[in-house]
Amino acid sequence: MNWENLLKPGRFDLKDKQVATLDNSRSEFERDYDRIIFSAPFRNLQDKTQVFPLPEHDFVHTRLTHSLEVSSVGRSLGKIAGEYLLSTYPTLSEQGITSADIGAIVAAAALTHDIGNPPFGHSGEDAISDFFKFHQEGQQWKGHLSASQWADMVNFEGNAQGFRMLTAKNSGLKISFATLAAFTKYPRPSDLPDPEKGRRSQKKFGFFHDQLAYYSLLADNLGITEIRPQVWLRHPLAFLVEAADDICYSIIDLEDGCTLGLVSLEESIRMFAAILGDRFSEEKLKEYKGTSQKLAILRAMAINKLVRETADAFIEKEEAIRKGTFDQALTDYIPSAIALEEISRISVAKIYRSKPVLEKEAAGFQVLEGLLDVFSKALYHKFYQPELYSGQDKSILRLLPEAMDLNEYDGSDAYAILRGLVDFISGMTDKYALSLYRKVKGISLPGA
C-alpha cells in the first residue's frame, strides 16, 4: 500500500464531485466531519450509554461525549502522524494533502466509531445476536437465509452496523473512501473461516454480507491490500482511530468510575501517576481542592502523554503497518502499556462489573429481546404465515419507520426484511427502546 493512493479523494456518490468544486473553503475530509456532526445517527448518541446507564450525573459520559473526545484525540494523533508522513513522502504535498487533512480523516472516522452501537452498549450487541441464536421467533428465520446471511444475524457487530449506516443511500452522509477505510478497524466479513490469531484486524468483523461489495470497491479505489479472499489489511489510519478510542475509554472510564465512587481517588491517582511518571507531582496536585479538579488535570496530562507515545509508536511502525507485518493495537506498544493494562484490569473488576452496569445489561437483554420478539413475529406472519397474520400484527407493523416500507418487500428476501428491522432497533436510543418496549408489551400506555 502507498500513501498517495490511501489518501486519494473520492466517495461512492460520484455526483458529489460536482458539489466539491463549489466549496473550496473546506477539504473533502473536513466536509466528512461536518456531515457527521449534523447527522441524526450521530445526534442519537447523546442518549446512548457509554458505560453507566442513563446517569443522573451530567458529567458522566454518554456515547456522544465519548465520541467527541475520541475525535479530539484522533485529530491530534492524525496531525502528528501527518507531519511525519509529509516529511517522509514529499509527493503527498504535491497531491495537495496537508497534515490537517490527515487529522481531519482520523477525527471524522473517530467521530463515527460508535455510530453503529445499539441501545444499552455492548450488551445490546449480545442481545440482538442471542435473539437469533436462541429465541424461537429468531430461529424460525434461519431456513430463509444463506449461511453468510445467518452468520450476520447471529453475530451482530456494532462496527459492521456503523459501516452499513455510513454507506446507506438514505443516510445523507456520503463520506469519503479514506474516512470510511479509517473507520473500518476489522476489514473482513462475519463468516470468515479461521481468522488469523494475533491479527488485531481479524478479531471482529467490519461489514455485513450485503456490504461486502461496498468495501471491495473502497479497497480497490484506495489500493488496500487483500491478503486472502474477502479479507484486507487495515487502512493505516485505522490504527490511530483505534488508539484514540483505547486512550479515551481507559482514562475517562476511570475518571467516571472515581466520580461515582466505584474506584477510590487514591487508587485513581496512583494509576494516573503510573502513566505520568516524573511529570506527576503530588505537591502540585494538592493545589487543586476538589476531586473533579484533581481528576480533570490528571486526565488531561495523561491523555497528552499517551497521544505523544502513540504517535511515536505509529511513526516507528508505519512501514510495517503498510506492509501488513504489524497488526496489533498501538497502545500495546507504548511505554505506558503496562499502566493501561492495570487500568483495564481495575475497570473490569470495579466499573464494568459494578451493580449499575450489570443491571443496565440485564435490562438491555429484556428490552431488545422483547422488541425483536414482537416485531419479528409480526413480520414473519405477514410474509411467511399469512394465515396467522392478525390485527395485532398489523398494529405492531404500523410502528415501523417510514424508511422501512413493507410494500417494497414480497417475502423473497428475508435478509433484507431482517436487516431493516435490526436497523430500526439498533438505531434506537436507550430511552426510546425502553419506552417502546413498555408500550408494545402493554406495560404502559402512550401519554401515561
UniProtKB/TrEMBL annotation:
Q: Keywords of this protein's UniProt record, alphabetized? A: Hydrolase
| Protein's UniProt name | DNTP triphosphohydrolase
Q: Sorted alphabetically, which Gene3D superfamilies does this protein's record hold?
A: eoxyguanosinetriphosphate triphosphohydrolase domain-like (1.10.3550.10), Hypothetical protein af1432 (1.10.3210.10), putative deoxyguanosinetriphosphate triphosphohydrolase like domain (1.10.3410.10)
Location of the HD domain: 63-250
Which PROSITE patterns does this entry report, sorted A to Z? HD (PS51831)
Q: Which CDD domains match?
A: HDc (cd00077)
What is a biological process (GO) this protein takes part in?
Answer: dGTP catabolic process
Which molecular-function annotation in GO is an example for this chain? dGTPase activity
User: Which Pfam families is this protein grouped with?
Assistant: HD, HD_assoc
